[in-house]
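Q: Entry one of two.
A:
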Amino acid sequence: MTDQDLPFAAPPAELLEAALYVPDIDSAERFYGGILGLDPIVRVGNRHVFYRVGAGILLIFNPEETCKPPNNPELPVPSHGAHGQGHFCFAVEGLALDDWRARLEAAGVEIEADFHWPNGARSIYFRDPAGNSIEMAEPRLWER
């Protein structure tokens, strides 16, 4: 079967959620909820903590917990998980990147890179406590 043989479906309209995997939910909660100030939605023990980011949701999972088969028949989410460092990028307007850089450095978070892309958009990169690469970039980085 080729792509042309598949029934038509419109491409997804937007990203609803994205996930990062961390072994320590407490440190992730201090980082994402405390340092980054994200709006928490729910935490379930040592399994996960979820945050609202604009219209989307950032899911922070402990892979040692999410790899276990589901035990709630009313929530039959398949087991999943990833190990190793991932990447996530927040949209942050230009001048606010300076404020974020100052806040992160004051919190002891090392800025690994701060640069301008060929189209002029700026990004800063840093790591969460689990080593995930976190980026804050001007939204014009991906202008259409």
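Q: Entry two of two.
A:
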Amino acid sequence: MSNDAPLSGSQLTISAAGYTAEIATVGATLRSLQHRGRDLVVPFAADEVRPVFRGAVLAPWPNRVVDGRYTFDGQEHELALSEPARGHALHGLVGWTDFAVALHEPDRVVLMTTIAPQAGYPFRVVVHVEYRLDAGGLRTTITGKNTGDDRAPWGTGPHPYLRAGEGTVDDWTLTLPATEVLEVTADRLIPTALVPVHDEFDLRTPTAIGPRFVDHAFTGFDRDADGTATIALTARDGHGVRVTFGPECPWVQVHTADHVVPEYHRAGLAVEPMTGAPDAFNAGTERGLVVLDPGAAHSAAWTIAAI
């Protein structure tokens, strides 16, 4: 990135079938996505430091590593605490990396970077991020390839804040076909128990969000014959946005974006398909931790489309 580039990095535009996406190279970030002029995600300005992980790629873990500590293959590791208020390592290591542009076509962008071995994560993983637009929406595919000599823990996901239309989260209707929710502590969001959805977390049928607060991970999705799950967010006029994802993402974090900054507060609904649960680096493969053998790669994909 040159010294005169916008603060969010070099800007890449792709378009197709009425969709336009703006990709910023810092964090391989989805900076904006529109369908026929309507915002499907909460955008931010090119010459702005990206707020609240808006549109960023999360890797080599999404969500949190509790206390920044984990054990892998018998070795203890300690990560920098990038969420100091709660004392966790948050959303991986590439959020502020300026990705290289491997390909830029009218409807497709491929970005790449290498996670260098470092304190807390002594593994080398090459990360490819592909954004592709067509009539079905914006499909994102993230691939991690272990180019080191040792096995590596891995996980990924996106961080878009969806917009259904006018208004705020309170005005929209959510359909979230998940059967289980991961309970967390109120102060530090540390996972406690996986339980059936209940009360305000039972969103399997179209439900007005209203004033409810959600910052939880869900799993046990109702999927079609191809293994695809769909989360839908709609406005009062029937327009909206949906996210679809395959079985490689068994978890989704949903957050109503409650924030002390007024312009951020409930401006969009964070919907984050994830390869693993929060704190999967400690919970292990039963909660979705991906283990990359030397030379192995893992891909996960999701699509954001207009309703």
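A: Comment on entry two: The chain has one helix and 27 strands. Residues 61 and 229 are 21 Å apart (CA to CA).
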